[in-house]
Amino acid sequence: MISREEFRSIAHNGLWKQNTGLVQLLGLCPLLAISTNMVNAVMLSLATILVMALANVAVASLRNLIPHEIRIPVFILIVAALVTVVDLLFNAWFHQLYVILGIFIPLIVTNCIVLARVEAFAAKNPALHSTLDGIFMGIGLLWTLALLGALRELIGSGTLLAGIEMVIPGASAIQVLPADYPGFLLAILPPGAFILLGCLIAWKNWLDQRAAARERARPASPATPAEPAGEASPAPAG
Amino acid sequence: MAHYLFLLIGAVLVNNVVLVKILGLCPFMGVSKKLETAYGMGAATTFVLTLATGASFIIDHYLLIPFGLEYLRTLSFIVTIAAIVQLTEMVIAKTSPMLQQVLGIYLPLITTNCAVLGVPLINISHSYGFMESLLFGAGSAIGFSLVLVLFAGIRERVDGAEVPLPFKGAAIAMVTAGLMSLAFMGFAGLDRY
Amino acid sequence: MEIVTSPHVLKPVSITRVMGQVCLALLPGIAVYSWLIGPALLLQLGIASLTALAAEALLLKLRGKPVSPFLMDGSALVTAWLIALTFPPLSPWWLTATGVLFAIVIAKQLYGGLGQNPFNPAMVAFAACIVAFPALMSQWPAQGLSLSFGQQLEVVFGLAPRIDALTAATPLDAMKTALKMDGVHASVQELLANQTLYGTFAGRGWEWVTSAYLLGGLFLLWRRVITWHVPVAFVLGLLLISGLCWSLDPARYADPLFHLFSGGAMLGAFFIATDPVSGCTTPRGKLIFGFGAGALAYLIRVFGAFPDGIAFAVLIMNLCAPLIDLFCQPAVFGKKKEAP
Amino acid sequence: MELLIAIAVMALGAVVLGAALGYASIKFKVEGDPIVEKVDAILPQTQCGQCGFPGCKPYAEAIVKGEAEINQCPPGGDEGVRKLADLLGKEYKPLSAEHGEEKPKAVAVIREETCIGCTLCIQACPVDAIVGAAKQMHTVVESLCTGCELCLKPCPVECIDMVPVPETLDTWKWKYPVIEIKPAEGRKAA
Amino acid sequence: MSEAKVYTAPAMALRTALTLLIFVVLFTGLLAGAYQWTRPAIEASLLAEKMKFINEVLPAGSYDNELLADTLSLPPTPELGLKQPSTVYRARRGGEPAALVLEAVAPDGYSGDIRLVLGITADGDITGVRVVQHKETPGLGDYIEPGKDKNKEQPWISQFAGLNYPQVADAEWKVKKDKGRFDYRSGATVTPRAVVGAVHKAVRFAVTHRQELFAQEGKP
Amino acid sequence: MLQKLFKFKGGVKPAYNKHQSVGTPIATAPLPSRLVIPLHQSIGGTPQPVVAVGDKVLKGQLIGAADGWISAAVHASTSGTVTDIGPYLVPHPSGLSIDCVVIEPDGEERWIERQPLDYRAMAPEAVRTYLQQSGVVGLGGAVFPSHAKLTPSRDVPMEELVINGAECEPWITCDDLIMRERAAEIVSGIGLFRDLLQPKRVLIGIEDNKPEAVAAMKAAVQTAGEPFEVLAVPTLYPAGGAKQLIRVLTGKEIPAAKRSTDLGVQCFNVATAWTAWRAVAHGEPVINRIVTLTGNAGKPRNWEVLIGTPMDQLLPLAEPAPDTDGVIMGGPMMGFLIPAPDVPVIKATNCLIAHSPTLFPPKPPEMPCIRCGECARACPQELQPFELYWWSRARNFGKTQEYSLFDCIECGCCSYVCPAHIPLVQYFRFSKSEIWAREKDKKMAEGAKDRFEFKQYREEREKAEKAEKLAKAAAAQAAKKAAEAAAAAGSEASPAPPADDPEAAKKAAIAAAMARAKAQRAAVQPRNTDSVSPDQAEEIAAIDARRQQAGLEPPAPSPEPAPAAAPDGKEA
Lengths: 238, 193, 340, 190, 220, 572
Ligand SMILES: Cc1cc2nc3c(=O)[nH]c(=O)nc-3n(C[C@H](O)[C@H](O)[C@H](O)COP(=O)(O)O)c2cc1C
Ligand SMILES: Cc1cc2nc3c(=O)[nH]c(=O)nc-3n(C[C@H](O)[C@H](O)[C@H](O)COP(=O)(O)O)c2cc1C
Ligand SMILES: Cc1cc2nc3c(=O)[nH]c(=O)nc-3n(C[C@H](O)[C@H](O)[C@H](O)COP(=O)(O)O)c2cc1C
Ligand SMILES: Cc1cc2nc3c(=O)[nH]c(=O)nc-3n(C[C@H](O)[C@H](O)[C@H](O)CO)c2cc1C
Ligand code: SF4
Ligand code: SF4
Ligand code: SF4
Ligand code: SF4
Ligand code: FES
Hints:
The structure holds six protein chains of six kinds. By secondary structure, chain C is mainly α. Chain C has two domains: 13-168, no CATH class; 170-327, no CATH class. Chain C has helices at 15-37, 40-62, 68-72, 75-86, 93-108, 121-132, 134-137, 149-156, 171-180, 188-192, 206-222, 229-248, 256-260, 265-272, 283-303, 310-327, and strands at residues 140-141, 167-168. A two-stranded antiparallel ribbon of chain C has the order 1-2. In chain C, helix 4 packs parallel to helix 6 (121-132) and helix 11 runs parallel beside helix 14. Chain C is globular and about 70 Å long. Chain E has three helices and five strands, in the order H-E-E-E-E-E-H-H. Chain E has a five-stranded antiparallel beta sheet with strand order 1-2-3-4-5. In chain E, a hairpin with a 2-residue loop joins strand 2 and strand 3. Chain E starts with 8 loop residues before the first helix and ends in a 5-residue tail after the last helix. The mean pLDDT of chain E is 84. Chain F is α/β, with parallel strands linked by helices. Among the domains of chain F are: 136-284, NADH-ubiquinone oxidoreductase 51kDa subunit (Rossmann fold), CATH 3.40.50.11540; 369-473, no CATH class. The complex binds flavin mononucleotide (3 copies), riboflavin, iron/sulfur cluster (4 copies) and FE2/S2 (inorganic) cluster. One iron/sulfur cluster is lined by residues 369-375, 385-386, 389, 417-420, 422, 424 of chain F.
């Protein structure tokens, strides 16, 4: 079984500390290509979560049967089979999304996170842990992707949840910014994706650095709450 | 002939795999810290990607389509690619320790480079013929190597800049990639005539 | 102990002075341009300068850097002016401001500010805006349009509607779209015969603006702010490739002179491609950089999807600059082939 | 039927590829790992064991096997971590606090009057920097001492001190230029 | 794998091949099963997708035949801008020719081809035009897609519906800027010119060839 | 004879400021109240003191003997008493102290016995040693022991000897004055160098802003009848840098990695030639030199100063203005502010400039580099200072070396022209020191590693030896036992001596071997068995049991596994 501690550490790793998109910088292609709006982003991450969880279970339970020399091909085989299943499922029931997500569903196979987690975690840990790891890594991806998608959509066209009708028929997008907002198209194009992800990474670094600075400051002098160090971290010039 | 030329230009510059198609980003971010490693990764990827496009074309046209098994594409392509990568790695390790030194740690990473699977899939969706597929594969690989090397050059320089602390490292690299991608948009339209 | 090191004497030069000379050299161009377009240009210069200084000050403060020495260096002003000069003069104020913010915040300060940006900030702004707002960025005051300052003010601040009659494509753009719509106009010659749009050797009126930039550029050369390498190579690149196309099919391609004095060519050759920070620094590197930028600018403006190619050409060459420099390292004293 | 064809086609591929891979894995086997040497060359060879391994080489091996982080060697300092990160293509991390801090270089000095000549420190010193025979006063050869502090504990009379190495014209270094515009200095410290 | 057994190369080859085989068989089986299971749903989706466009250009109630079954394969037709074979769907009401749904391409869009579907009645009335695929600049040229058009009530593309070919003279098939009858959005005239031109040609083609198009024996 | 001059790239033209100090001839500075003579005054080994506190010394007496070939002797500058030998502040940018000999002058200026040397009659080797013992070092600034530079390369014939009278730094005029006033002795000194090096040509380069010096030297050369060429070179800092002057006069470029003799050239300063001639012709070791006192001073002038004179006793001669706030030793381009007013004049002291904020305004704040390339255009070594700066600032020392950091001669041209006011040279010095320190660390680490590995090997061996010994002892015992047993058996069955019985002997040998093996096993018993938990002990027992079953160990004298081994382990 799994202890509370282990659960927390797996969850923390997946959601924040080892966040695939912001820290490990793996699985970037779908992250950037599909995050043009929030709906696409969320749907692709759901598919990825599904694959990751299943792949981790499969590998973790079969790990003792797989000879070392061909473990990579076998892992890939497993992942690829699962991905194709998910691909078929999307094609059957979310056809419009399937068309939009395009080759990025099959590309979950090479999505480095899946393999990396399979190799780094599932191949060494029991099935339950691995499933959880897969799920939390996936949720970590989900929120990053959703946030990125939301940002890009908002800056790029001033709406949120465009295309929701493909998932929930009848629902419609929310116009957040005024209708005559000109739309900073760059955000939706690849350059915007890179730059905004860069900013998200920096945002996470900033939070972490601020937390670390607080941590360091606390034992020394607990009475320095309004410390400006974090917000304007100067470049390490000296 | 002009058709092939424009196909190549398109694959290398206009529809660059990394900056426009957004494929193969993990190695793009991962092995671009130094120029030498970028050269190595570029060479290795070019080799494997070209081979992979050829192999997947053959598999698709002579195994999958005749039997109506198109849904097995992903599975068969990726397993083939993984095997090619692993074989290449072993052969290089044995035959050329020099090359192994240079490429060693990057070769296994290629399997998880989505460009290597993505390019064959794009080939199929564009219904390219064998020559076209091969050319598109090679072009994409060259495009990948090109931007990887250029990116590494810039990253080495930016490494010395006084980048604000939260942006140090991956974040500024992302921003740089974004501006590169912006610059590459300038090629838009150059593959038409 | 603080070490005061040798040398103990310095030449009386400063960055502020260098940037000041660049601004000075831009003045003839600005004068002719605003005479052609109207005072809106000065308005744009003002908007851009204010935004740039404010953004620079804010970012410096956030980064915990001293504000005044860096504001005084004048580089933000150069960036702002170049943005104002390359954006359409009747752009809404927020477009100019967005461009400047993008240049100063993302292209410059995120990399550590002055001297450390790998891309030309002004051109990043131009590229980002033309990609994000293609319609606004490809509309220029229509030929022969004369608006009072008040009217121009209203247009820039969005108080008056942006009517179609106000704007038109620039001569470069017009020529490209006309040629694209095969059949309407037969040849370049036929187009160039249009006296209201095209002047003696380039776009009507524009030719004098570009000539004024050339003048300013020569001043920079004389003051040794820039070296001859980049401008000469740039012009050469543009001339060579436009000459080649022109000699192959003069009906489809305009003559080199037209290209040299159209759009941002002169501004690009002397003021933009010469940005020392983001360009090449070795002599041979500068030649390659300039040539590449000139050639690419032609390819993009003639075959590509954008009205003018200077911005993208310069950005693409910025990308290559570190590598070009790496391969063009001059030989160090004593490491050359052989002494005579 | 379709199912069978699918399986047959894939099985064919699997057999071919599997055979090739298996064959190659034996035919093209190589031994040895040059990376350990490279890692070891970066480590400062102080042999102090602060990294949690009995010497620099074992730590190098552990790093390469992925069993140890790259930020466990305090004598190597920040720069050592950076070099390792560079070599191994990993992200730089600050020195791990649990393994100790980077200290200015010091050497051991034996207080001659207290030393009883027990030879325990000689045995402890990993780099043979202490000379002396049994029952005689020992001395540390300053130029050989790496400052690992391993000799401090075994000494029964606690006669060994770590003394910072004084600066001489030979070891003096030009300083990093003082950045003269620096209202930011105060903040930098924060 | 605690005890390291030493294999010869062929033995190793056999061993790996067999292991891989087992896994491949296992997972291919799984996959094939999933395929069989999802196939009906996928086919239904594909059909639905096709019908969606057809319904947009041709009101569902205006015909009573099995539209998707009454098709005709056209060879590459320059009049339609097509370099590849295409399919024409023939709507009939009570067996009489009612309308045609055909594909066309505007090759001179701002960034490449613009693919269209048109519905044209037997009398030359346009029942609808839709853009299936294009690469025009987002925010500038993409208003030809009704979903992207800021004017939601009267999307740009809707101005074709109801026009009749011979009645609207050839000279009027132009954007207003070129002295025609069609609107355009300022700053982006290349795209509407291309679309108008393509629709013009396609209607002309349909009207001049309607007899053959309805009469020809199609492959169901 | 017309000689073609070459050009070097780069260079700058700062204001000369030489006219102030050339108006008056060289004068002799008064004897100071105290002389502080650093032992280490030239490149290379630190001379060992050969006098003790309280010793009386004569003027010119050896007080520090050269330590190794690259090292030069140090002498008492006047007669007097040694009052101290110990660390004193010296003129060095570090502000550190080094060992100095302090002499209290007795005012008598009693010389040692001085003898002219007939150097032509001596072996060149002996002349070099003599120069070393006379403390002749380069006075051009680098203070490299001259005798070492006077050794021609073995396989490259010497082509040119370049004499450096360029004196390119602003303010400094000591070489100018010495050439004007002592040209004949300089020419004789050059003759000495020529005889030692045997070059094909001798070229004397003097910047063309010193026409008097050129004329004086030309006249002296003519008088001496020597075939030396005196050439006026264009005034352009740093034309006096050895590499630049050699380039200008001969067209040869000396790379950083090579010595100039490898290209058949050698370069000496004019003052060096003069001191060498004094040493040979008059038997006077180097105890004084010409120092320019100038800057913010009322009476700028050149003085002949005893080595060791505290600068605070010297500077008043020039009557510095009241706003003087420091002293630069050397020129404004390469010199440094002395760390304290009382540091002594050393052989490298060519000029003291009184520093004031009006003459040398404080530097404007450092801005970031804008890569304008001015520095690269000014660099006489054709380096790319902005790249060196970029990587030095980022502390990426590998990159600085890729950009040829060590070719930098620290001339300061780049800093001089930089519009961003970056103290570039300082960055380069910083990088150089760091690289040297790192190299030292690396050597140290390699040594430590070797010694560590050797120690491990030795411990292994010692362990093995100990085990061997133990085994031998055990074997001997076993043999004895066996012999006893055999004897017992023999006495029962046949009285034949055991040696005659091959069977028994064999058995004994086998028993001995087995005992040895056992002892060895016991000896190498892993340490961690000495504090085992009960279940671990159990496990060990189980393993032993399995071993026995497998017949790997004779069951008979079953050893108590853990406890028995423990003491062994400790002892080993
Ligand atoms: C003085 C001046 C004249 C211009 N004339 C034209 C023109 O005739 N045609 C045109 O397409 N653009 C014109 N522009 C805009 C430029 O083509 C171009 O869009 C702008 O200078 C920035 O181009 P770049 O960023 O590609 O260098 C002009 C800009 C300036 C400053
Ligand atoms: C980046 C960019 C993208 C453009 N995309 C389109 C487009 O998709 N469709 C279009 O008709 N015009 C597009 N244009 C505008 C054309 O360049 C051209 O200016 C315009 O069509 C001329 O129209 P006008 O006659 O309204 O001035 C684009 C311009 C730029 C700069
Ligand atoms: C930048 C620079 C400038 C120099 N200027 C002079 C000079 O003007 N006169 C001079 O004699 N030596 C000068 N030197 C020292 C020479 O390089 C060289 O060390 C000297 O001429 C060798 O002669 P020496 O060994 O007799 O001192 C300079 C060195 C450097 C690096
Ligand atoms: C000759 C010269 C040309 C310049 N050109 C540009 C330019 O094209 N764009 C720009 O943003 N800044 C330009 N600058 C200003 C400055 O170098 C630039 O903002 C830096 O990139 C900021 O780090 C120029 C400066 C000089 C001296
Ligand atoms: S901490 Fe560093 S120096 Fe000490 S033993 Fe470990 S690797 Fe060696
Ligand atoms: S003397 Fe002490 S501190 Fe120095 S190396 Fe030996 S054990 Fe370490
Ligand atoms: S002179 Fe100064 S600002 Fe110019 S490139 Fe050199 S270091 Fe940079
Ligand atoms: S100090 Fe060094 S880098 Fe600067 S000009 Fe002189 S030689 Fe060149
Ligand atoms: S997800 Fe595309 S390379 Fe990693």
